[in-house]
Amino acid sequence: MKKYSVIIGAIIGISAMSIHAKTYVLTDTQNNIEVGSWKTEGQNYTIEQQVLHGGKQEGSKVITITSPNGLTIALSPTRGMGLLHAEGNGVHLGWKSPVTELVNPAYINLDSRNGLGWLDGFNEMVVRCGYEWTGHPTTIDGQIYSLHGKAQNTPASYVVVEIDEKPPFAIHVKGLIKESTFKKTDLRTMTQLTYIPGETSFKLHDVLTNHADYGHDYQIIYHSNFSQPILEEGAKFLAPVSEVSPFNDYAKKGLKDWTTYLGSTKDFDEMVFNLKPLSDQNGNTIAALVNKDNNKGVAIEFNTKQLPVLTLWKNTDTLKQGYVTGIEPGTSYAYPVNIERAQKRVKQIEAGQSVSFDLTYSLLSDRSQVQKVENTIKQIQGSTTVKQVETPIAKE
Amino acid sequence: MKKYSVIIGAIIGISAMSIHAKTYVLTDTQNNIEVGSWKTEGQNYTIEQQVLHGGKQEGSKVITITSPNGLTIALSPTRGMGLLHAEGNGVHLGWKSPVTELVNPAYINLDSRNGLGWLDGFNEMVVRCGYEWTGHPTTIDGQIYSLHGKAQNTPASYVVVEIDEKPPFAIHVKGLIKESTFKKTDLRTMTQLTYIPGETSFKLHDVLTNHADYGHDYQIIYHSNFSQPILEEGAKFLAPVSEVSPFNDYAKKGLKDWTTYLGSTKDFDEMVFNLKPLSDQNGNTIAALVNKDNNKGVAIEFNTKQLPVLTLWKNTDTLKQGYVTGIEPGTSYAYPVNIERAQKRVKQIEAGQSVSFDLTYSLLSDRSQVQKVENTIKQIQGSTTVKQVETPIAKE
Amino acid sequence: MKKYSVIIGAIIGISAMSIHAKTYVLTDTQNNIEVGSWKTEGQNYTIEQQVLHGGKQEGSKVITITSPNGLTIALSPTRGMGLLHAEGNGVHLGWKSPVTELVNPAYINLDSRNGLGWLDGFNEMVVRCGYEWTGHPTTIDGQIYSLHGKAQNTPASYVVVEIDEKPPFAIHVKGLIKESTFKKTDLRTMTQLTYIPGETSFKLHDVLTNHADYGHDYQIIYHSNFSQPILEEGAKFLAPVSEVSPFNDYAKKGLKDWTTYLGSTKDFDEMVFNLKPLSDQNGNTIAALVNKDNNKGVAIEFNTKQLPVLTLWKNTDTLKQGYVTGIEPGTSYAYPVNIERAQKRVKQIEAGQSVSFDLTYSLLSDRSQVQKVENTIKQIQGSTTVKQVETPIAKE
């Protein structure tokens, strides 16, 4: 396999931001650049790309950002720029799936198991579920709309690491995910992870562009998954919401305790709740998972103008099955696309138009950080009571 | 990845032709030869194999023949020896698809979208649609017959470049496409592209062999696709035909103008016409696309004994959607295999038998070349009038 | 592609057995080890791993054990540790499929042809058909249960070669096949081939572990396939059985001659027989294929407590179609999983439990070896008569 030498300091005219940045192109299909194993180091960070081998992970790539006093963050260009895990101050963000390999999408058939093939690779901390469609699988006119769409199983066409040369010396990892099918769709998403070394939070700024000459549907769910040490018996979910409803009949029985978690529980399977998030006057809001002792947590800031709904996935089954909860800001709930469309949650993106999605993930590792997030949530919640709707808003 | 040194001048006993040829085996699965990046140069040509990387084109190979005073021709062993594009005298043959990568078939699921997975990779100039089946997808007894069959998404098992050592020093690129499935089919096609450096035409000579001990159906459409600078408002399609009919109801409204093209037209989508080509006494015929000014074009010579029907695909939608027309000599029209079978266009190849398909593609870059093709077409057309059938011959 | 240096003599704490063994880890996804091309030699053996290239076998790996006075055995980590062929004393074990490449599962869609995609890669001597399901394909609630399950098209996650350092200096090739799908299954099979250089038999010892916290169905068929020079007109199948029944109506007409074989026969297709094997008091039994002259054969020893049923697949069609017979000890016959379940042959494996499968394959190359196997079979058969059931026990 031909290895291209790393292009150091090349100025790529992608955005104004890169003018004062060191730029490393790791993948560029248009210019046939594929760097493979790669590493760069700064004063307080290391960024490394590794190519995995063996089994179904043959050829899968991982980019790891390591900041000794901040976070270690891993993401995978091969799996749609999905975030694998993050870690800092002794707190791990992510979870343990029975799927232990970073499966190369070449080995995945999304349509298998009647549209559940996505489950053969699912083990990430943050999965972009979209953008052509998302949600539970369904078959319409013979076409399987497979679980959570194709983006996560699409290898990035263009990957660049940019390191700002002026304070705060932010690191940007951009990756382009193309959902391009002749006659059908040409949705291209330039994902971006931004991390400032030493900090304990990171940002996503994804720009979805409809490259086609016709408008197109889109859906997106940021499927953000966390487990131990934050998730435990007595852990809490916090978010300002106006309404909660069970996803299905099984979740009804968990409605009264929807904000608290069980420990790993045999036969629990999963309960899903549909939430209507509240936000400040700018649409900004925040959701968090906090441990029992209120000294560990993770918070996700997002904007309800971009991501108007929020799904809470409580999968507190046994450790081996995947003890995990998902906090999932999105344009849609997890119902199949036909239900989401009927209920008017499927968005439209006009020809040539772009829409952005911004999320900030913060690792909380002491009581004061947790308290601060709780305060913000209380402030946004204000005096609004949370309406508990007993009946699922849709039936699959 | 193990790289084998290039075998220069080795005599492979494939055909008498190679006795006086320099022979370069680029791929040979039986002997585990895979050359990867490779280049050879002659007095007036360069032939190069490049391995692409990144995104969904990881591992895809391209062979490019460059003849400074003639053509540059690119084809892909990974994608069924499909021809990507050709260029000469400032005229480009091929088109621009929203699919920009040369997708490795490992990333394609032909059955997806109810049999339309082929659209995830379609961006070539010449696609062999076949040979086990072709046409629009259909499901028979639960089996999806996916759009345009499997050949184009089958990596070649054997690839050899032969360069004749006596005039006219033709270059032959052969590639073996195996459609071999235990119990089902063993159709093996030795494709061959022949190009004489300095010329502005090239030939395909494909030999389909039924390697099984039982007869088998086969279908083939040479899906040949062209765009700017030949395709434009006022461009013309020329071919001697006895009959034209619209593929479906939508194409009815284009019937009266079936030989001329629109510029890129929003909401045009595609119109398809079924043609019955006329030929000379040997079965030889020719079809052409010519620009408005009659000084640029492309002509395809083929034989109606091999390829009795001709499909005209007018996809004059916007540039970004893929502004393109397909001239498609075949054994079948593009209806699903069950319709083609009912209408007796599905061919049979007996056990051990071979059938050949010969096509010559010529780039036309001045008025006299265009005129010459027009004259040939007029001569074959003679006094036969073109019957316009208003009603589609089949309904999908 | 990064190549890791071979770890020689490393002690891996997998089993007590490896304490006095040289251990070579060839693949280890958890530690990102993938050795690629590799070779080791001893006094009377060579073990080599080769990476294949070109066509649909790009990246497929083969491990070959060669013992000059014993057997040459080839198996493929990429294709579920399947055994490709074995050879010794001039006798070849295995067969010739029209599928000539060792197809990388990245190029296989098991669901294609309504669940027959497995046929695009089938050419091995021993295929593990399982473990999540096996048998002929069926669709239940929209999910395709594809032919013979997924194990054979799953690249091994962990591959190790161990060579015992004390007599009889056995060679063990272990490979881990994970069928891990979030929410669905976590069946992990540590396959093991054991061969003592100089001998003409080899053993399989496979340990299937249900790594999940819930019980799960499993099925397994050891699809063991042989052809010339053993299979020929007048060749015989030998096994102690209490009952034989035709798999379907077509096999009825072959019932009276079910123990003998035809030469390669046009239009024969395949006849399948369901057998109830007899065994000794420990459950041990043996089945064999013997040539006409009783001087060549192959015997499979297995245990009916592990593998209670036996399928005989007679595919004595023409050589090109694949002239082959399958001797298939299993937990199930080859009916679709819903039939096998209804007839109580689908097994259950509890959470955390392991079940083992042990088989010994012996190459027979003279009359006395054949005679010995025949005697054992006669002894187990004893005075039990073989009941011939005329009607298939199930209808697909």
UniProtKB/TrEMBL annotation, chains A, B, C:
Any GO MF annotation of the entry: carbohydrate binding
InterPro entries listed in its UniProt record: DUF4432, GH-type_carb-bd
Pfam family, one: DUF4432
Keyword terms of this UniProt record: Signal
Signal peptide per UniProt: 1-21
Domain of life: Bacteria
The protein, known as: DUF4432 domain-containing protein
Organism: Acinetobacter nectaris CIP 110549
